[in-house]
Design brief:
The complex is a heterodimer of chains A (222) and B (395). In chain A, 81% of the residues lie in helices and 0% in strands. The longest helix of chain A has 34 residues. Chain B folds into four domains: 39 residues, no CATH class; 99 residues, PAS domain (Beta-Lactamase, 2-Layer Sandwich), CATH 3.30.450.20; 72 residues, Helix Hairpins; 150 residues, Heat Shock Protein 90 (2-Layer Sandwich). Helices cover 47% and strands 18% of the residues of chain B. Chain B has twelve helices and twelve strands. In chain B, the strands form three sheets. In chain B, strands 2-1-5-4-3 form a five-stranded antiparallel beta sheet, sandwiched between helices. The two termini of chain B are 78 Å apart. At the A-B interface, helix 1 and helix 4 of A face helix 5 and helix 6 of B.
Chain lengths: 222, 395
Amino acid sequence: MNEHTVKAFDEDITRLRGLIAEMGGLAELSIHEALDAMVKGDEELAKKVVKRDKKIDALESEVDKLAVRVIALRAPMADDLREVIAALKIAGVVERIGDYSKNIAKRVGEIEGRSRFEPLTLLPAMGEIASEMVHDVLTAYAARDPALAREVIAADEKVDAFYNSIFRNVVSYMVENPATISSAAQLLFVARNIERIGDHATNVAEMVHFAATGTYPPDEDG
Amino acid sequence: MSGERPPPFSSIALAVAGALVIGIASGQWWLAIGVLTVWIGSLLLTSSQPPNLTRTEPSDVLSSASMGELIEYSGTPILVTENSRISAANRAARKLLGSHVIDQDMRVALRHPKAIQLLESRKSGFTRIKGLSRRRDVWRLNKQVLSNGISVVELLNQTAEVDISRAHTDFVANASHELRTPLASIIGYVETMLDERDALPDEMRAKFLGTILAEGKRLQNLVSDLMSLSRIEAEKHEQPQEMVVFDTLVSRAARDAAGVDRSERLKMDLAEGISISGDERQLEQLVRNLVDNALKYGAADGEVVISLQSNDNEEAELVVRDSGDGIPPEHIPHLTRRFYRTDPGRSRASGGTGLGLAIVKHIVERHRGRLDISSQLGQGTNISVRIPLLETADN
């Protein structure tokens, strides 16, 4: 990006990007730890994840304030405006991703008989793809790399496929083991949350693409 | 400027005297005044040159630009941050984090919460983070605070160390698993035989004893394979120096591996007089393992071709070829890993330990040789071992 005549504007944009990256780092770690806690039944770790969400929320409101101030004081144009708007929207989405991780962490205590509960072994692979998407989309944002953003959008299909297969798996498991229905139902919500994380990463990828090129990526399907 | 020298009075006095002499001698006082002006003027000009070279500002040394040049070609990724911005990143760091990070907020480059915590503190320190650029890598960040809000962050990749310790744990876990499986069936059968001492028909008893014997032998093989593997690994840095006549060794070891009942399946084509420097026992083991594998996993009564030649690169080339089902290509890169099996059931049933090719690989490496495995599904597998020939006196 070219330098601006008003140095302070450059500083504001840099700070904005720094804040988004910080939020993203926290959200990434939260996904990992939430799934770790879910698989191992580590409630301490789950509590840490829940607590971390407050920090993500605080950062989001900081981004909001800064973005509004930049628009009000500097009246940015063209790619600068896109940058600020994208930051504003991305912050909202990353905050949602943090919420989903928190949601997963909150369900850690609800799963019973963890060691004999087979469907649990399906989750980490799905979670790994979703968290990789979040990781890549944040890298794409940092590098303003539309190609990487398109890759992230393509990866969402894998998460969706995983979700469908986990859904079928868990439902058939419920039929065979009615005693575990409440735990299995919780697991369905967890899988759903991971699937939503993937969708949100896709949304961020679209915004990154928009901020970098001014157009939305081709053949998006919502 | 503070370090100014006093005017050169003695030189000025000399100039005045010289001008007086010119004035008196020539009587042209204008000329004398002119000479005097030029003389004193040039004296003053040269003396006002700042002589104080020692007085460079020491704080200028720490500009981030000069540091950028200093670190550019280091193999370790290094970042220079100035008031939470990245002002310089060397080549390795740009490769790792992307060249976009320069002039960005440092959080853009390292967004892991632990990294941010380290970077935001005003003190030097270090932290370890997981998943910096890829999911499983582990990096150690060293931060050193210099003056003027400049800090240097060094990134050290520790993935390999973590991998090695994981490989060790994996090995121990695998080995214990492999040792426990035969033991479990031995104990199971013996318990049954003790419980049903009278009720057990003789043929059943014989079958049980046969299984116990087979499992016991498997355990024995496994322990001796583990021992030879660790011995070879311990010696792997010293190249063996004994002179070995490789062709006689190959034919002896191959017959040994085949035993009486399988030896007619061997077809040997060995060039004579091939000597290498090596460890005789280990080379025998290498040939035995390769031939035994080929006989075991090749077609049930297909022949196994063993050929030994010296090639143009001054190497002895041993090729063992079977005509079995072949090995699917996705397995080939992993074949020399310990306990790796393409078909676990079949390998165990035939008494394999999962260590044979790992041992072969280590022996070949110790002899500074090369191991190549190629296979075509449905046609068979080709394993070639190349070991440098002994340098003879006549060439």
